[in-house]
Write a structure and sequence with these properties.
Quinone Oxidoreductase, Chain A, domain 1; oxidoreductase; binds nicotinamide-adenine-dinucleotide; 2 domains; seven-stranded mixed β-sheet; alpha/beta; six-stranded parallel β-sheet; binds zinc ion; metal-binding; Rossmann fold; 368 residues; binds ligand AHE
C-alpha cells in the first residue's frame, strides 16, 4: 500500500513529507493506522545525527497511538479495530529479560530493531524502490506502519488518540521512572533536572506518590510556571546560582532522596548524582546523551552511598503497564492535556522540532 510519511532522508535536514510504499504485515506482525504521534526529544536527537544507532533514510517517531487495520498469520492478542499504542520497548513475556522479572528491557527483537528492520531482517518501508529504515521499531511519523505483535499495547477504545499517544513515550517514561525505577516513597525530597516533556511527567509522578519537596531545575526560566502547574514546590535556575549542587544540597536539607536527569547532558547527570543525600541519594538517568559522551564523578560519591541508576521507558512493561497508564489518564489520576501545547498536521511536523528546540513547546502532537 501507499502511505503518507515524514521521511528523514539525511541527518540534520528537515523531514520530507512524501508517499512511501508499505508492505503488509508478515507472520506475527500487525498493520496499524497511526492516528496521532508526539514528537519526543529523542526523535530530534536522532535527526540531529547524535544517536550512535541513527540510520538514514528512515521514518522516525515512536510516540504514537492508532488502530489495528490488519494482522499477519499467527497474531492472537489483537485484531483489526483494536486501539493500540506502539511500544519501542516490547514485551514478549518469553525472553530471559521478560522472565527475569528484573527489567522491562525485553530482548526478543532488540537487535533487529536497532538495525532499523523488522524481526525477519527486512524493512516494510520503501520510497522509489529505495529501502527506508524503521525507527525504534515504531516509525509513527508514517500514517500507517507495521509492528511486531509483541510491540503493541491494546488500550481503552474510548481513550483519545491525540492525548494517549504521549503515553507511548513521555508520560510513561516520566511517571514510570518515579513509580517503577526509583520507587519514590511518600515524604521524599525529589530534584528534577530538565522540565520538558519528560521532566514534567517526573514531577507529576512524584506528586502522585506523595513526595514532599519537589525541586525543578531548568536553565529556561519559563519552565518555572510549568513545573509549579504539575506539583513542583521549588525552582532553581542554574544560571542564577553560583554552585547548583551546593545550592540544592542546602535547599533539601542535606541532599535529594531521589534525583532525575531529564536533559541528556552528561554534566547535568553529574550534578544530579552529586546533589543526592550522602548515604542514600538515588539518581536516575533518563536523558539520552549524544554519541561519544560519558559520565564522570568521583568514586567517593558512590562510596558514600549515592546510587546511579538508569531508566528506559520508565521501567514499564509495555503490554501490561501501558493500558493501566491509559486508565490512570481516563480516571484523572494523571494529566496529559495541558502538556500538549501544539497540535500540528503532518505537513507541519518540522515546526514541532523548531518549537522543541526553542523551548516553546512541552509536547507537539501530529494528528493525521
Ligand atoms: P525537552 O527538550 O522537552 O526538555 C529538555 C529540558 O531540559 C528543557 O526544558 C531544557 O530547557 C532543559 N535543559 C537543557 N539543558 C539544561 C541544563 N543544562 N540544566 C537544566 N535544564 C536543562 O526534552 P524531553 O522530550 O523532555 O526529553 C528529555 C530527555 O529525555 C532527552 O534526552 C530525551 O532523549 C530523553 N528521553 C529518554 C527516555 C528514556 O526512556 N530514557 C524517554 C524519552 C526521552
Ligand atoms: N540509541 C541510543 C540510545 C537511545 C536510548 O537510550 N533510548 C531509550 C529510549 S528514548 C525514548 O525517547 C531506550 O529505551 N533505551 C533502551 C534501548 O534498548 O534502546 C544509543 O546510545 O545508542
Ligand atoms: Zn521518546
Amino acid at each position: 500500500m501507499k502511505t503518507r510519511a515524514a521521511v528523514a532522508f539525511e541527518a540534520k535536514k528537515p523531514l520530507e513529507i512524501v508517499e512511501v510504499d508499505l508492505e503488509g504485515p508478515k507472520d506475527g506482525e500487525v498493520l496499524v493506522e497511526i492516528m496521532a504521534t508526539g514528537i519526543c526529544h529523542t526523535d530530534a536527537y536522532t535527526l540531529d545525527g547524535l544517536d550512535s544507532e541513527g540510520l538514514f533514510p528512515s521514518i522516525l517517531g515512536h510516540e504514537g497511538a492508532g488502530v489495528v487495520r490488519e494482522v499477519g498469520k499467527g497474531v492472537t492478542s489483537v485484531k483489526p479495530g483494536d486501539h493500540v499504542i506502539p511500544l519501542y520497548t516490547p514485551e514478549c513475556r518469553q525472553c530471559k529479560s521478560c522472565l527475569s522479572g528484573k527489567t522491562n528491557l525485553c530482548t526478543a527483537i532488540r537487535a533487529t530493531q536497532g538495525k532499523g528492520v523488522m524481526p525477519d531482517g527486512t524493512s516494510r518501508f520503501s520510497y522509489k524502490g529505495q529501502k527506508l529504515h524503521h525507527y525504534m521499531g515504531c516509525s509513527t511519523f508514517s500514517n500507517f506502519t507495521v509492528l511486531p505483535e509483541i510491540a503493541v499495547a491494546k488500550i481503552d477504545p474510548e481513550a483519545p488518540f491525540d492525548k494517549t499517544c504521549y503515553i507511548g513515550c513521555g508520560v510513561t517514561t516520566g511517571v514510570g521512572a518515579v513509580t517503577n525505577t526509583a520507587k519514590v516513597t511518600p515524604g521524599s525530597n525529589v530534584v528534577v533536572f530538565g522540565l520538558g516533556g519528560i521532566g514534567l511527567n517526573v514531577i507529576q509522578g512524584a506528586k502522585m506518590v506523595g513526595a514532599d519537596m519537589i525541586v525543578g531545575v531548568d536553565i529556561n526560566p519559563a519552565k518555572e510556571e510549568w513545573g509549579r502547574r504539575f506539583g513542583m514546590t521549588h525552582f532553581v535556575n542554574p544560571k542564577e546560582v553560583k554552585d547548583v549542587v551546593a545550592h540544592l544540597v542546602e535547599l533539601t536539607g542535606g541532599g535529594a532522596d531521589y534525583s532525575f536527569d531529564c536533559t541528556g547532558n552528561t554534566d547535568v547527570m553529574r550534578q544530579a548524582l552529586e546533589c543526592g543525600h550522602r548515604g542514600w541519594g538515588e539518581s536516575i538517568i533518563i536523558g539520552v546523551a549524544e554519541a561519544g559522551k560519558e559520565i564522570a564523578t568521583r568514586p567517593f560519591q558512590l562510596v558514600t552511598g549515592r546510587v546511579w541508576k538508569g531508566s528506559a521507558f520508565g521501567g514499564a512493561r509495555g503490554r501490561t503497564d501501558v493500558p493501566k497508564i491509559v486508565e490512570w489518564y481516563m480516571k484523572g489520576k494523571i494529566e496529559i492535556d495541558p502538556m500538549i501545547t501544539h497540535v500540528l498536521k503532518l505537513e507541519d511536523i518540522n515546526k514541532g522540532f523548531d518549537l522543541m528546540h526553542s523551548g516553546e513547546s512541552i509536547r507537539s502532537v501530529v494528528v493525521y
